[in-house]
Amino acid sequence: MHELGIVFYIIDGVKAAAQDNNVSRVEAVTVELGEVSGVVPDLLQDAWNWAIKREPIMDEATLFTEVQPALNQCDDCKETFSPTKFGKTCPACGSPNTHLIQGSGAIIKNIAAR
Ligand SMILES: [Zn+2]
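Output (C-alpha cells, whole complex):
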C-alpha cells in the first residue's frame, strides 16, 4: 500500500526532527503532497490514523496535507512549466526533452509541537 509507506516515511522524518529539537509531543504535521505523486489524501489520512497509534510521541497528531504543484524543467532551454497543463513538451521552445523536478513525492513542510 503506497500511502502506508509514505506515512512511515513521514513518521520517521517527524521523529528524527523531534529528537533533534528535544520535542516531547508532536501535535500536528503538515505534509506537501506532489500533484502527480499518486497519493490519495483520504487513504493517507486513514493510514496516518492507524500508524500514529504506535508512536507515543505523536499518537494524537493531526495530519494536514497541501498540494505541491508538479513542475517540469526543459533540458534544452531550462524553462520550468506545469506538466499537468502542458504535458511533457516545453511550451517555450517545443523540446520534448523535459523532466519532472517537483511534484512526485511527499515533503514534511511543518511540524507543530510543544
Ligand atoms: Zn525548452
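The chain has three helices and six strands.
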